[in-house]
């Protein structure tokens, strides 16, 4: 009966029992968790070599088999992918086993927000001759992925926290989240409202690549834009002189 009900919405796949079904969900989430960590690590390496990871991935995905594209970012969010891998790590320890890949991927993914803020600090000093402390910074995108209003476990919340801890005056812009709701991890941000424009900021971090953000206007208004999602790739080359891929 349950299968017949779900088949109205989507094709269901039957497995032997609920344990197998739950393990299937864990495998899918952990597959993404580990592969996102791999491209995040490659992004860091390729940055040092002056190689564009986004161009590399676009070329690699032209291979007709054996490659699935994953993309780097400022961290990993979402209730499932951010939490499920650690659940399996916990269960593995009950059986005297360790989960090396999961925990290594966790080290890489959870360090990304700190790395992004460090990069902003460096670029502001080099390009603007300004300190992050006391500067006005706009975080573009609170949702953990594009074109949704779900901000559960979003790395943007940690970015907000880190930027404030460095003394920045932080605002955010997200057309899907006009007001930050109460969250377990960062209740101090509850009630904070989305900015109504791009004027008056020294720098911006694009943390979520919402398609209905006017990135051209953003880049014109703000002297330094750190793009963690390649959201500005479609803009003309001569309008991206203040954009840093990070």
List the helices and strands and how they pair.
Layout: H1 2-7, H2 18-48, H3 53-60, H4 79-94, H5 100-128, E1 136-140, H6 155-165, E2 169-173, E3 203-206, H7 215-221, E4 224-227, E5 243-245
Parallel strand pairs: 1-2, 1-3, 3-4, 4-5
How large is the radius of gyration?
A: 20 Å
Structural class from helices and strands? alpha/beta
State the helix count: 7
Please estimate the helix content: 40-55%
Per DSSP, what share of the residues sits in E-state strands of 2 or more residues? Answer: 5-15%
CATH architecture group name: 3-Layer(aba) Sandwich
CATH class equals Alpha Beta
Number of strands: 5
CATH superfamily: NAD(P)-binding Rossmann-like Domain
- Number of domain units: 1
Which series of helices and strands comes N to C? HHHHHEHEEHEE
